[in-house]
Amino acid sequence: DQSSLLLTSDPRQKSTHLMKLTVGRGHRAATTVARRLAHVPAAAAGRLRVDDKLKAFVDDELLPGTGVAPSKFWDGLSSILEDMAPRNRALLDRRDELQAQLDAWHRANPGTPDPTAYAALLESSGYLAPAAPPFEVCSQHVDPELALVAGPQLVCPVDNARFIVNAANARWGSLLDAIYGTDVLPGDRAGAYKPERGAAAFGVAHSLLDESFPLEGEATWSDVTALSVAMRDGGAASLQLSLASGGEASLRDGAQFVGFLPGVPTARSVLLGKNGLHVELQVDRSHRIGATHAAGIKDVQVESALSAICDMEDSACTVDAADKIVAYGNWLGLMRGELSVPMSKGGKEVLREMNGDRTWTSAAGPGSVTLPGRALLLCRNVGLHMYTDAVMLGSEEVPEGIVDAMVTAAAAMHDLQGNSRVTNSKTGSVYIVKPKMHGPEEGAFTAELFSRVEGELGLPLHTLKVGVMDEERRTSLNLRQMMAATKERLFFINTGFLDRTGDEIHTSMEAGPMMLKADLKGAPWYSNYEESNVDCGVALKLVGKGQIGKGMWAAPDDMAKMVRDKGAQLAAGASTAWVPSPTAATLHALHYHATSVKEVQGGMAARAAEIASRASSQAAGLMTIPLLPAGGKSLSADAIQRDLDNNAQGLLGYVVRWVGQGVGCSKVPDFDNVQLMEDRATLRISSQHIANWLHHGVVNEEQVLETVKRMAAVVDKQNLGERGYKPLAPSFDGPEWHAALELIFKGRDIPNGYTEETLSRWRRVRKAMEEVEEVEQLFSKDAGGGKDELKKPAPEVQISPSPPPRPHA
């Protein structure tokens, strides 16, 4: 087998054989070679075969300092895999079995189903789980950022060190920067600092301070000319504000004055608080900004992202052992408090590190107030359907989520044992977000997995907490049962409406054509989905022990609209909602000043009977399939084409970044050139929507292919000048192109409509091709020391249409 020659350490020899093996053999050969390159040579660890670099990372970097020996780690992982990998597979098979039953039923009963007959199908098949016995969530030792204080939550790919350090440091953000640098303040914000815009930014900040921290009488923050602190008997302090009129003012609610840093003649810093969140007024008249402000305020720092999800899943791009080592290494650096990134700022090289905690003199009396300088960090592992060849059990790939759980927990032991430069969890917990679970059986499986990991690593029971993503239809309809299965570990339930929309389409693929994509959020299922999630959290006493979360603001450049609209999520009872950037976190934090989530949720709890009474109507709404009326016959050709164009452009715009550049989440311009935050969840919607319309004849193959080719030209133009970009046109034959076609034309058959397997497989092909290109460059620089064969131009790697995806692998 010539592929064995790829084991050579000589990159030129390896690449030559890579090219020989792939030429003329199409995708299967390229994929096989890419897999071989990604995980060999391997080291033995009992029955496990582990990528040698991954094993070295675990043995030499991850475990030292934890008290866990490498042999203990690998033996423990092997034991868990031997017991739980077959059960993981059985759960995936159960998904397929239920989907097959739904497909068959819908083919026999096309269109909008009879509600009674449909409910009977879901019950008899086991899709609807039996009601759980009475229970309450009983999680313990949950940090206040999740259990007690409502605030924004960032989501960030953990495979990007610069992004994730910024996310960790997003606990505090400049309100002035957030106003000046976004469309919250209309006008030109490009170029050098504009004093008039800076003054306008202060005007907006003053108004926001007036709303959150009003002054006595008619005074406003724009009247303030100095901030001073008066000490009282017993060590307490009061805040005195000098006004332009010559008078003085105080806070209407003196308890909002939390702390200060003394200065001469005025305080250097004043710390204010509302609804558990804080704002710091920094004073320095010698600063270039402070010198322009009447009171010498140089910045208004807002406590912003209380927590941040370090994402190994939808927003990351990790397709092989090398990629996973980067992601694992960044999580380890976060848990040690030592992750840093060299950056250029102001023409100087600086090292961006994780911020330390912040301390002020207490306004309440002797002592100090210390607040975290970083967001509480959570880690999102991959779902049950993801498999990896970085670790092999015998000759079989293993569930990647099981490996994730072991590594995530082991890395967090540095934090738990006090080996970190800074502290993450102050209550001794590790927070793992678990996505894409289908029903309570998978929740119970995850809870058991966490128990097994705790046992193997010597952690106390229930150290590992679970955040349940309510983003699959079977989980939404069985959310109470899911919460019962995880009740000792649960720290959040979060609606992920993007993935949930993709699953809504795939689950009812055979029922008929779906609504226009823009109309799906207005369908009955969606409002009932969001309402039911909050009701479950309140009714089952998650409040005070964990979060009720809502989804992402996907337009990072439209902050003005976010400021106007996103507060509605708090009014609906959410204690956190996702934001795409530190700036968005700072602006979204203002909503938590304006709305007391504690009061909203308390009011809901007082209406327990009302909440209980609407559970059945919510279930009925959740089971309402968002089909096009009359099978789409009333839609105009223009409306159909517009939706198809939008889906195709968004799909291609994301795939070219993921497959071609290894970027799992980024701002991708949509059909109207609006920058949107895209990840695999948005791709799932677009691919499933096209596949659904194609299956039901709303569009045809020729129309879809013409549209995708036309949109390829649009995407190529949008990415013109992007470093490392691989154009789709005119060849229409790269891995990016074939991945896009597979997601569309085989989307109906892809398990649950997930995009990961297709993306990962074609990304590995692209990486193999890049290795060929790198060695070609090496050959071209060779002064003649190689064989004649090596001096010849390397043949092009040919790619033929891909085979059907392997289920769950």
What is the straight-line distance between the termini? 24 Å
**Can you count the beta strands?**
26
Q: Find the structural class using helix and strand composition.
A: alpha/beta
Strand order of the largest sheet: 3-12-17-20-21-22-23-24
Oligomer: single chain
Q: What's the overall geometry?
A: globular
Helix content: 40-55%
Profile the largest sheet. 8 strands, parallel, barrel
Radius of gyration: 28 Å
Strand content: 15-25%
Overall average residue pLDDT: 91
What is the number of helices?
A: 28
Stretches where pLDDT falls below 50 for ≥5 residues? 1-12, 18-33, 36-40, 785-809
Describe the structure.
- This protein has 809 residues and is an alpha/beta fold.
- Helices cover 45% and strands 16% of the residues.
- The protein contains 28 helices and 26 strands.
- The strands form 6 sheets. An 8-stranded parallel barrel has the order 3-12-17-20-21-22-23-24, surrounded by 7 helices. Strands 4-11-10-9-8-15-16 form a 7-stranded antiparallel sheet.
Name some characteristics of this structure.
809 residues; alpha/beta; 7-stranded antiparallel beta sheet; 28 helices; disordered N terminus; disordered C terminus
Briefly summarize what is shown:
With 809 residues, this protein is α/β, with parallel strands linked by helices. 45% of the residues lie in helices and 16% in strands. The chain has 28 helices and 26 strands.
Write the layout of secondary structure elements.
Elements: H1 11-22, H2 26-39, E1 42-45, E2 48-51, H3 52-62, H4 70-108, H5 115-125, H6 144-147, E3 153-157, H7 161-168, E4 172-174, H8 175-180, H9 195-212, E5 224-231, E6 237-243, E7 248-249, E8 257-261, E9 269-274, E10 277-283, E11 297-303, E12 307-311, H10 321-336, E13 341-345, E14 348-352, E15 358-362, E16 368-371, E17 376-380, E18 387-393, E19 396-399, H11 400-416, E20 430-434, H12 440-457, E21 464-470, H13 473-477, H14 479-485, E22 490-495, H15 497-507, H16 524-539, E23 547-550, H17 559-565, H18 568-571, E24 576-579, H19 582-594, H20 597-606, H21 608-613, H22 615-622, H23 637-661, E25 666-669, E26 675-678, H24 680-695, H25 701-718, H26 735-745, H27 756-781, H28 788-791
Parallel strand pairs: 3-12, 3-24, 12-17, 17-20, 20-21, 21-22, 22-23, 23-24
Antiparallel strand pairs: 1-2, 2-18, 4-11, 5-6, 6-7, 8-9, 8-15, 9-10, 10-11, 13-14, 15-16, 18-19, 25-26
Helix pairs in contact: 1-27, 2-27, 3-10, 4-12, 10-11, 11-12, 12-14, 15-24, 16-22, 23-24, 23-25, 23-26, 23-27, 24-26, 26-27
